[in-house]
Structures are given as C-alpha cells and as structure tokens.
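INPUT
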Amino acid sequence: MAYNALSEAEKVFILHGIQDDFRNDGRSRRDFRPMELQTNVIASACGSARFCIANSDILVGIKPEIDAPFPDKPEEGKIEFHVDCSANALLDFEGRGGEELALEISNCLRITYASPFAFDLKSLCILPKHQCWKLYVDILILQCAGNLYDAISFAVKSAFYNLRIPRVNSALLDGGNVDLVLSDDPSDCDRLDVQSIPILLTICKIGEHCVIDPSIDEEICSSSNIVVGVSRNKIVSLKTISGGSFHPDTIENCIDLAISTAKTLDNTLMNILKHEESLTKSKKNIKCSFLN
Amino acid sequence: MAQELLSLQGLRIDGRRQNELRQIQCRLGVLERCDGSAYMLHGNTKVIASISGPKHPTKNSANKNRGGDEFIFNVRVKFATFSKNGERQKVVKNSKKLGEIEINLKNIFKSVILVEKYEKSQLDLNIEILQTDGSEICTVVNAATLALIDAGICMKEYICACTASLTNDGVALLDVSHLEEICGGPTLTIAALPRTGDHEQSVAYVELSQKFYLKDLNKIFDCALMGCEKIRGILDEAIRSNAFELVNSELTNN
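OUTPUT
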C-alpha cells in the first residue's frame, strides 16, 4: 500500500477516534467517503469508466477481442484483468513495488469473477468450441488514497455497464473455418447484464472494531484487512490482504457488515449508473469531470 | 492517397480550416499527491502529466549519474493499454519507441529549465497517455509544460509544441490528427520557445518525416510556429485563470 509516515501519536489518535465511532474525517465506522463516477470517458475503448473514492482515482477501459475458448470450457468466454499503477500513482508506490500490488488486485478480481454466480461467461460465447469474446479489462490507477479494491471493483462494474460489444449477426462453421458476420452499424451492440456483477468491499480491522472504506492513514493503523466479494447477497470471494490475522468470529462480523453495506451500495451504484446514462443521452458533451 | 486532405471548399477531413487548431482544454493541479500535475485534452488525445520533485536524488539515479552534482531529470512515458483504436496495446517494458520519446522530452525540457538552480537534485516527470489521436508528442510537451509550471519549477519560457503537415498541392495544414497522419503527407513536429518581448522565437526540437520539396519547408515551418504561438496563448490563459482561482480560494478561506 501507499506509503505515508505516521507517528505513534497520530496512530493512537486514529485508533481512539474509531473506538468512539468518529473517524478523523468525521465519518462513522460504516460510512463511505464521497464518490464520483463517469462512464464512457475513453472513446478508443468499448466500455470505460472513471471512478473516484475521495482521491483514489481509477480509470477502467474494456476492449473485447475474438479468441478461441478453453478446451475444457467450450461454451464460455474469457476475461482478463490487468492492473496498471500509472506513473503518477507510482510516486505513491515508490520503491514499494507497485507491480506486486497490481498482481494482487488482478488476482483478487480474477477469483471473484470466476464464480458462475458473479458473471455469466456463457454470454460471451459466439460459437461453442470455436470462438468466444475475450474481454481485456485494463485498470489504471491514477491516484491512490486508500481503499483501492473497492474503488476498482466499482469502476470495473461501471465499465461493464458501459460496455458495448459489437453484435455478431451470424456465425457459421464452414469446413472447420469460422465465418463471422459482424453488424455493419457501429451503434448496433450487445450489452451485458451487470446486475449480478460483484463488488468488493474491504473491511479493515482497527483495534477492536471493523471499519469500511479505510483511508491511507487508517490502512496503516489496521491490524488486518479482508476483502469480501459480494454479488446480490451472495459471497463470491473472500481474501485477506496485507498480513495480520482474524478471529473466526470477527470474520463472521466482517462478512455481515460487508453484505449489509454491499446491498445498499450496489443498489445506489445501479441507480446512479442509470441516472448518468440518461443524463448523457439527453445532453451530449456535458462537462462534469476533468477527463472530458 | 485514399482521401483528399483538403476539400475543394478548403475544409479538412474533420471540418477544420487549414490553419485551425483542434479543441484544446487543459487543467492544472488535477492530482493531489504530486508536486505539480496537468491534464491536457487536444482533440481526442488525452494526456496526464505529473511532476515530483525537486528532491534529493534517489540512489538509483545518482548511480546512473556516476555521483556527479548535476541536475537529474527523469522522464517516464506510458501509453494506456486502451489508448489506441483497434487492438489492445500489449504491455511492453523498455520499448524503443517510448525510450526515444523520453530522451526527446528530456532534451527539450533541459533547454528551458534553469538547470543551475537545481544542482544535486532530482526531478521526475511522469506522463500517462490515456487516449491517442495524433500529435501525441506535442500534447505531451504542452501538458508537461503546464505540470512544470504548476510545480513551480523555474523555467526560461513556456515551451509549446505543434505539428504541421502538407497536402499534395502544397498547402500547409496545422495540427495534424491521426487520420491525417495515416493519410500520408510529411508531418513536422516542432517544440518552440515563443516570442516574448525582444526575444525572438527559438526552436528547441524539430522532427520531420518523409521527403518533400525544399521550397515548401518555410511554409510548413511557419505554419507550425504559428500554431505554437496560438498554443502559448491557450496555455497562458489556463495558467492565469488557475492562479486567479487559487488566489481567490485562498482569500475566501481566510
């Protein structure tokens, strides 16, 4: 995680704040920081989104490519996640291996999306055994201010909502060669069902309490962190990050906290996405964020 | 040539006039955690530049410099994997193309930064290209200028870059888009220190590809230099309005 120097006194201050349910930015233990969302920011990607939680700034672009499915899963498409700590965010990760963190995050996303409850890979199939879509999900960390996992999962979900895959009009097998006919009209596209796409929630244990959406300073004070992948009231992944250990009962508490938070957050995110889409439809070229 | 670069009515493929720039928007101080940063949108090319430093040289770069007391200026350029139309870009480390851009940038900015003020210190320039649509280098240079100014690095002058091209009929085109780049025609990239007071305009970087008649050289050169002047105006306005906003917010806060 990003490096910030904290003195002993500062750590104690944060710890006491969390005990009293009053964090140093005025939030309670179950509050998120302000978030910002914008979809369709990159014209050269088929689906893109920018998501900020406070100063954690994430940009996601999805590009589909045609590929052959795995022999053991002939009817499923593929997804590949690639996390890139941008040169700007690298200032934060200086000498601390941004690559390791990137690998950790992309692995966490991979196991989360591997669950059949989370993502219907069959919808990416074009012609079983022969061709499928492979989605390259490229995540760019522009800035890091804590809670990267959550921000990235929201950004990815938003990008999936924005994703438009070219429509395949017909796929025929002609003597072992696949003959694909893509639609000529660029606006003729397929969209994915994003309802069940999971979101990740980091639960951070500081002192005796569990906290959501930790800032960088709080991440430094935490004794252990757990990332819970939630898709419609179901847990699809569970992963501890950055050392430390949990009491089994605490894990249960964490999961309960994650599920209840994820439920409201997921609903809000979907509503906002729909709202944002209607806004951009009615008014083209609105300038609301620095990326446009 | 597949497509005419300039129609009979004098309009280009994207509807611009021959000496018209694409839309430029820029913003300073977009990233909180660096010493200076800027975001630049030039047509559809999007670039974020950030500066960290001046700071004590890290061991790595000091070693590279063989323990000298000189100013160390590191440049890192990165294309986002989704930055180009068509296929996804592979992640390549130490690619030659990027290395070349980095060296060019280093040389361009070493000519304007007051190097003697920053002896024994290090300055890092990081550039992230989010989307490309031609004239990447000049967008990068302009964004980096803004970032340097946002970071408060002492410079002699603004440095502005612009591209120009030539049609078959010998008409100079200002600010080349990607479509015009691939349609052929020579492309000239210039980075220049604009005219200020009694100082004449001076050119810090030139790159020109393809052959063409020598008599057209002046035309295309003048066209690009005029573009640099225009861009200087835009950058200047952005910097002044940014400074104005900063002062205003400081005053209202106190």
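end of record. Chain A touches chain B at residues 42-45, 48, 55, 57, 59, 61-63, 65, 82, 84, 86-88, 90-92, 95, 136, 138, 140, 142-145, 290-292 (CB under 8 Å).
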